[in-house]
Specification:
With 286 residues, this protein is an alpha/beta fold. It folds into three domains: 112 residues, 2-Layer Sandwich (Nucleotidyltransferase, domain 5), CATH 3.30.420.40; 55 residues, Dna Ligase, domain 1; 74 residues, ATPase, nucleotide binding domain (Nucleotidyltransferase, domain 5). It is built from eight helices and 14 strands. The protein has a six-stranded mixed beta sheet, sandwiched between helices. Helix 1 packs across helix 3. The longest helix has 14 residues. The N terminus is likely disordered. This is Competence protein A.
């Protein structure tokens, strides 16, 4: 995923950020200077990962993106953010502590081998979320290679060599760590609410332990069954019937409180709404 040496890098000046979803793609051109983020350009393509079912459809998709970004080919960095139901994220709590030098082998030979997927199709990542004397909590991430390949081909067509791949929940975690998100709770749920899907992030001790993608329509009651009345829920993204339904079911729900300095060339929209709707793209360069 994203290289550790550029997380929160103050040297990011101008860059392209592409958020790939199943059914659409959000693209931003962003300038970051002196701690302030300026959105230079922002547009959406109503084509997403689920539409790329053939080689021709993928070629056409990349051609559209390349055309849209033709004026920005001189930029040196491109960031991608992706998270869909094909990204597998699992929590392994309170397992026996393993020495750091043995972690790679332990994850690959003791955990991954038992997963009911062909691991050859995934990039394997993991995080140690909690480390105690004899036990630890591990988060395992399997990222599909087919998505990584799409991102690589987009960067190649734009002739941009420096590319970085992020997942939505990782960006939210970074914003929590940098105190750009004011939770006020050690344990809570953060919902990314988009048009066709939601991402449900379960936060424990200010760390995202699980992050699950749900198709929204037709699954609302099922999604509600995952929520608890005594756990605070925060959301960002769309204000729609789904959020209204959660509130009407007497859950404790608030819009995510964000501490970000953002300017936009789009004067027809409020800054708060721009941040709310484009949080992942903005968060990539924070």
């Amino acid at each position: 995923m994203r290289s550790a040496n550029i997380v929160g890098g103050d040297f990011i000046k101008n860059c392209i950020v592409i958020k790939l979803d199943d059914y659409d793609t959000e693209i931003s051109v962003i300038n970051r200077k002196m701690g302030k983020i300026n959105i230079i350009d922002n547009f959406e393509i109503e084509i997403g990962i689920k539409h790329l079912i053939s080689l021709e459809s993928k070629k056409e998709f990349i051609k559209i993106i390349t055309s849209k970004l033709n004026d920005y080919k001189h930029l040196k960095e491109i960031f991608f953010s992706v998270q869909n139901e094909d990204v597998i994220i699992r929590e392994y709590p309170e397992i026996q502590r393993v020495k750091k030098r043995d972690l790679d082998g332990y994850v690959n030979f003791e955990i991954v081998k038992d997963m009911p997927v062909n691991i050859e199709h995934y990039v394997i990542k993991y995080k140690v979320l909690n480390l105690q004397k004899n036990i630890m909590d591990i988060q395992l991430i399997l990222f599909p290679k087919y998505i990584e390949k799409i991102c690589t081909e987009i960067a190649q067509n734009l002739n941009i060599k420096r590319k970085y791949l992020n997942m939505n929940f990782d960006i939210i975690q970074k914003l929590i760590d940098k105190k750009k998100i004011d939770l006020g709770h050690e344990n809570c749920v953060i919902i990314e609410n988009k048009r066709n899907y939601i991402i449900l992030n379960s936060v424990k001790q200010r760390k995202i332990y699980t992050s699950t993608v749900f198709e929204k329509y037709g699954n609302e009651d099922y999604i509600l069954s995952f929520l608890e009345k005594d756990i605070h829920i925060f959301y960002y993204g769309k204000e729609d019937s789904f959020i209204k339904n959660i509130k009407e079911n007497e859950f404790c729900v608030d819009k995510l409180n964000l501490n970000l300095k953002v300017n936009s060339l789009n004067k027809e929209d409020t800054v708060d709404n721009i941040i709310n709707q484009n949080l992942i793209n903005i968060g990539v360069v924070v």
